[in-house]
Amino acid sequence: MIKAEYCKHTLKFKFDAGTSRGILKTHEAFIFKLWDDSQAEIVGLGEAAPLKGLSPEFGPDFENRIQKVVNELNRAVLDFDSLKTILFEKESPYPASIQFALETALLDLENGGQRKIYENDFSAGTDSIPINGLIWMGNETFMAEQIEKKLRAGFKTIKMKIGAIDFDTEFKLLKSIRARFPASELTLRVDANGAFDFQKAQEVLTQLAELEIHSIEQPIRTKQYDEMAQLCAHTPVPIALDEELIGLKKEERESVLQQIKPQFLIFKPTLLGGLRATAEWIALAENMQIGWWITSALESNIGLNAIAQFTYAQRNPMPQGLGTGQLYHNNFDSPLTIDNGHIHYIQSKKWNLDLLT
Q: What is the CATH number of the domain that holds 334?
């Protein structure tokens, strides 16, 4: 029968991570462990790490909810197939990040507890995934330093968060990049995290078009469907929905997309309800001929590893928004490596999970 437990790990940023919702210094991750009591030495791991201000389940009682789930699983006397049916075939009873963690842990367990969530060329170490280099919000000097590091590291797609400092300064930074690298050599994405009002967003889109920006994520805050639809209908820069997707019920997804008609969608498994829910979103996007890519959401290397393997399995050639695993002082050592704007799974590197207690 399947048994469960969890441990809490507080990730510590190497810098003050600026977003339009404030500064992040730490991020709490809860690591689920699943095993079959007949083979207790084989353990699958999954990560639940909801984001403050974005994850509906985030709050002071979240750890209590995790403990409740663990207690319920241990009382339920479920075998592997029964839990897999609950997680992958039935309506999920769990909050988004917990669903993601349990799915991941169960797939890891199924594959021998080796952190191989999917058997594919990425997890085998023979292929890699192109990703964008993320530029965090901060003062002009800090952002400029990050840009130089990403360019030196060989990234061909850079995403800059905007909306924290004045847009004139942010635009100047973007313009300085474009002056050095034309759109044929370097793709520029921006992420507003809903920072602008409708009128300001129109002005920002017009300015960004001058720089041949690939896309802007969430230019205005969520639930302004009419305003977002107007922006998408007339924008000179493709618009990607991100936060807009969080918390939508399955029966709401298509109608919201039909109303807004975005150019792109961005999928974060931790926030959307896990791997199964993300696969459903992908199928809907492709059916509606909407472009998409997948983004991690500040998970540790345990969660990032699962998202990267899942992402590779979807065979989307666009640069993805996967993290680099280098944000934290105390991340778990893993086979994930960034080289020349790609994330790789290096077979010769080993996991070190000594930080799990």
A: 3.20.20.120
pLDDT at 20 over 60: no
Number of domains in the chain: 2
For residues 169 and 308, membership in a common domain is answered with yes
In the residue annotation, 159 being an active-site residue is answered as no
Which position among 33, 156, 159, 268 bears the catalytic label? 268
* Annotated catalytic residue within 161, 172, 175, 250: 161
Domain end, chosen from 110, 139, 174, is at 110
pLDDT at 18: 63
Query: pTM, whole model, 2 decimals?
Result: 0.96
pLDDT in tens, 267-296: 999 999 999 999 999 999 999 999 999 999
Print burial letters for 205-217: b (CB count within 10 Å at least 16), e (below 16): bebbeebebbbbb
Same domain, 61 and 30: yes
Strands (E), the chain: 2-19, 22-36, 44-48, 129-130, 133-135, 157-161, 187-191, 215-217, 239-241, 264-267, 291-294, 336-339, 342-345
Contact 246, 56 (CB under 8 A): yes
**Pair of tokens at residue 160:** 């800059």
pLDDT of amino acid 50:
95
pLDDT digits (tens, 9 = 90+) for 95-117: 999 999 999 999 999 999 999 99
90 among known catalytic residues: no
